[in-house]
Design goal:
alpha+beta, 4-stranded antiparallel sheet
């Protein structure tokens, strides 16, 4: 019986369970359906082998295969790409195809570079074009509609050429309200010419990359799609140019193509003696390639245009997860040259085995039709051995979000995000928070290995990119990798990261600066309060709520506390107040909270803000603070009493300061002005 972590059990219950089946029942259903592609005499053998491979958690296919295989719902692929042509027919046809795909859990990318710019003439109707940014909103609304009844949130990618007239609008599309396009990642297609121009200080290229970096600094979008690097490795250039990718960027595709993904859990291949078990890894890699090729055969696509495109190239993408776990078990620091050396060994090995197995399948079952029915003289430039592959592509490194949680391992080739953190997951339209503790900690303890892995925000940008680049070197599709940056990262850091990705041969890349969005999927459970100079409170903290009345105006003050009892954040709720003043009070509360968390002394805030004079003002219901010149005056007098002078109280004098006009208060037998410091004893 497969041993699942508590989080894996919860993920299975929320997202994967079908008709009250068990986890093993799901895997049996998948294995049976996929093995139906085998010859009748061998189906039972491969069904057992596929089940064992998955139930050992050494390999899992992409989620749609787990959702749908054997249910009669068909679609087993995770990744699709639609090229939107400059016509209403194409725009709406791509929406139709996208809806059919997303219904069963597939993610969609859109190549938008062919669409004319906003405001350009449309001769046929004497109108003006909406432009590609408007199409993001159009396709986003479709994904949100489908998500309401689906198993997971819609995932989409929009890619636009840097040469497009609307590129600046596209870059800034998610700057102000990223949640309004929450189903979309966006990327800019950058040519070698642009990147060389930036490197040489050319003004236009420098300005463009700076704009991309500024927006990425704000929200994590856009990323970069290095289109020339992608097309240098296009396995079928005679079929067309690769203009876009799936939502996470690891699969560049032609129009209407899909890719079937699966990932090997590398942490399962470290022996008790802490060595890589190469023989087991080879056997399972070969079996996984066969599994994914069978998935192509049994897949039931929702439209003939997709079916034809997929079966022409038979693209698969075998990737990895548990990379950070493998390094931890080997006691190798992620941020080290040794880690890069191990990555090269493993990536080259898996590439060699994957390619060899696809060649064997090509001889057994026939090469991919795209290599058999040559459509252009250009294909004569392709090496003879390539034409014998069963699959036009074999390798892709996916992010493995939920399947890594199912397998109880680290995601993709990422370092551990944190050893304990919160992950937000969409569950049938609702946001669910999962508390994660990395399972590798238990395995290290069981093996008596005294090694604590470095986490994502502890690792320098350069090491993140070197890992991505070395895996890309041995991957014929692409590598999904998020460069997680600390909150303190600068725009220059991000520009440098994009440049380094291109120089090292990556096909694209994204960055995410911690706390750059109010909502993010992964959040650290802060145990030590100081993070980049900010003393953040834990998600669960004690608090004090105080009801008050000033001049007939009622309200509530809530103060969140650190474990020491010191105030760390402030919330102000004013009863029956207009939206403008409510917004002002909210802003005051946010600024006060930030000031406290960045160690601005409460005494300083009290000194500056008590005595503020505006309506409502007057009598209060607090015997210790009988009158207040404003709600703000009352709030900071109360905080002063509660947290600074816990045995003393303010006594309002009713007298005004001769220097600045603020109300004087009694303090230590003196009349004191809290604004300018004037005193009268």
């Amino acid at each position: 019986m497969t041993k699942l972590t508590p989080i894996a059990k919860e993920i299975f219950e929320r997202r994967y369970r079908w008709n009250n089946e068990t986890f093993s029942g799901m895997l049996q259903r998948v294995a049976h359906h996929v093995a139906s592609a085998e010859k009748p005499k061998e189906r039972e053998k491969y069904e057992a082998a596929f089940f064992e491979l998955m139930s050992s958690l050494c390999f899992l296919p992409n989620s749609p295969t787990l959702f749908n295989a054997g249910t009669g719902q068909g679609l087993l692929s995770a990744c699709f790409l639609f090229v939107v042509d400059d016509s209403l027919v194409s725009i709406m046809e791509c929406q139709r195809l996208s809806g059919l795909v997303q219904k069963y859990g597939g993610g969609v990318g859109y190549a938008l570079s062919r669409v004319r710019g906003i405001g350009e003439n449309i001769k046929s109707v004497q109108g003006k074009a909406c432009g590609p940014v408007a199409l993001l909103n159009y396709y986003d609304s479709l994904a949100r509609l489908i998500t309401q009844g689906g198993k997971r949130a819609g995932a989409q990618m929009g890619i636009l050429s840097s040469e497009h007239p609307d590129v600046e609008r596209f870059i800034e599309a998610k700057d102000k309200k990223p949640q309004e396009l929450s189903t979309f990642n966006i990327s800019i297609a950058l040519s070698d010419k642009v990147m060389k121009g930036y490197k040489n200080g050319e003004v236009k290229s420098t300005s463009l990359l700076n704009k991309i970096a500024k927006s990425a600094h704000k929200s994590g979008d856009p990323g970069c799609f290095f289109i020339d690097a992608v097309n240098r490795q296009n396995p079928t250039p005679w079929l067309g140019k690769l203009e876009g990718t799936n939502p996470c960027g690891e699969v560049p595709l032609l129009h209407a193509e899909a890719c079937n993904l699966g990932s090997i859990n590398l942490g399962k291949y470290v022996s008790k003696g802490n060595n890589i078990e190469w023989d087991r890894l080879e056997a399972d890699t070969r079996l996984a390639v066969r599994f994914l090729d069978d998935v192509v055969s049994v897949n039931n696509f929702p439209d003939p245009v997709i079916d034809d495109a997929v079966r022409l190239t038979r693209k698969i993408g075998l990737g990895v997860m548990g990379w950070a776990d493998l390094l931890a078990l080997l006691q190798v620091d992620y941020a080290s040259h040794r880690a890069i050396e191990v990555a090269e060994d493993v990536a080259l090995f898996m590439q060699t085995i994957s390619d060899d197995e696809s060649l064997k399948l090509g001889k057994e079952r026939g090469a991919a039709p795209c290599f058999v029915a040559v459509m252009s003289p250009a294909s004569s430039d392709i090496p003879e051995g390539t034409k014998e592959f069963r699959n036009a592509t074999r390798r892709s490194i996916a992010p493995t979000g939920t399947i890594a949680l199912l397998a109880g391992c680290s995601a993709g080739i990422e370092p551990h995000y944190e050893l304990e953190y919160t992950r937000t997951m969409s569950d049938r339209g609702k946001q669910v928070e999962l508390k994660i503790r990395e399972p590798i900690l238990d395995e290290l303890e069981a093996r008596a290995i005294n090694f604590i892995p470095k986490t994502a925000l502890q690792i320098d940008i350069n090491w993140h990119i070197q890992h991505q680049a070395i895996w890309q070197k041995y991957t014929d599709l692409a590598v999904s990798k998020t460069i997680n940056l600390p909150e303190s990262a600068t725009v220059d850091d991000i520009e440098g990261a994009f440049m380094m990705m291109w120089e090292l041969g990556c096909k694209g890349g994204t960055v995410f600066r911690d706390n750059s969005r109010s909502e993010q999927v992964l959040k650290v459970e802060v145990k030590t309060p100081l993070i980049n100079g900010r003393k953040k409170l834990p998600d669960e903290r004690p608090s004090i709520t105080h009801k008050f009345e000033v001049g007939g105006q009622n309200g509530y003050i809530t103060v969140g506390l650190y474990e020491t009892g010191e105030p760390g954040d402030l919330f102000i709720n004013i009863a029956k107040e207009g939206s403008t003043l409510a917004g002002v009070y909210d802003a005051l509360a946010v600024l006060t909270s930030l000031a406290l968390q960045y160690d601005v002394p409460l005494e300083s805030l009290v000194r500056k803000l008590t005595g503020a004079r505006f309506e409502p003002s007057g009598l209060t219901n607090n015997k210790d603070i009988k009158t207040a010149t404003s709600v703000v005056d009352y709030i900071f007098k109360w905080m002063d009493n509660k947290f600074l002078r816990k045995t003393a109280v303010h006594k309002d004098s009713g007298q005004l300061c001769v220097e600045c006009g603020a109300e004087l208060i009694y303090q230590e037998s003196c009349l004191l002005c809290p604004i300018c410091g004037f005193s009268r004893c």
